[in-house]
Design brief:
The chain is an all-alpha fold. The chain has one domain. The protein is built from eight helices and no strands. The radius of gyration is 21 Å and the shape is elongated. The chain starts with a helix and ends with a helix.
């Protein structure tokens, strides 16, 4: 009885960890894959639109990302920044660090549970023949499709709502392009493409999980 209860708790933990892992992994894609931004430099014609060279733009982006992900001193390369602008990136760093640690912890939990199941130390409980991974994937899919549907109707408004939620009570995310020149190389089209990449990753992963679980279920019934 006690073992059965523990297995149920572990199964719930697996579902919740898979949910967090998929979300944080997908969010991490545009953060840690820097070439994703590099491709935008010429694609969005940033050198001509801003007057900065390709090298200056890349250096500014890299130094900001070094601060956000590698704990290096804050800098925007050759571009100007204000104290208010720097403070916004300090707020961003908290969210970036949070995403990294949740990604790390959820990965460790999922891998540990998979190994324990493989060596028959635990049993993953199923509901109606499907594992917690199936239900976690369906839940995320519903949420992300709803968000994408709302955001696609008015991305500008969705962008503002996002900042009001995660930077509640602050307005330092509204940059002055003259005092915080970094905003000139971070157009909204880039953030929209980041959102598309994240949403696409989540949808692909979750649909793959759902299909695999359905195939497993059919094999069990045959």
């Amino acid at each position: 009885m006690k073992k059965d209860f523990i297995n149920k708790l572990i199964s719930i933990l697996l579902g919740f960890s898979v949910l967090l892992l998929i979300i944080t992994f997908s969010i991490g894609l545009p953060i840690y894959i820097r070439p994703f931004y590099y491709l935008h430099i010429n694609a969005l014609d940033l050198p001509n639109k801003t007057g900065y060279s390709y090298e200056t733009i890349k250096e500014a982006y890299d130094t900001v990302l070094d601060f956000l992900t590698l704990n290096k001193d804050f800098s925007t390369g050759k571009l100007l920044y204000s104290t208010s602008g720097k403070n916004h990136f300090v707020d961003c760093k908290f969210l970036f660090d949070l995403n990294f640690y949740v990604l790390l912890i959820s990965s460790i939990i999922v891998i540990s549970i998979i190994l324990l199941k493989h060596f028959k130390k635990i049993e993953i409980k199923k509901l109606f023949g499907f594992s917690p991974v199936f239900y976690a994937s369906i839940f995320i899919n519903i949420i992300i499709i709803a968000i994408v549907t709302i955001a696609s109707t008015d991305f500008d408004k969705a962008f503002t709502v996002f900042h009001n939620i995660f930077f509640h009570g602050k307005d330092n995310w509204i940059f002055n392009s003259k005092t915080d020149q970094i905003i000139n190389i971070l157009p909204q089209d880039f953030f929209m493409n980041c959102a598309i990449l994240i949403a696409s990753s989540i949808i692909i992963i979750t649909f793959s999980n759902i299909i695999v679980e359905i195939i497993k279920r059919k094999k069990q019934l045959n």
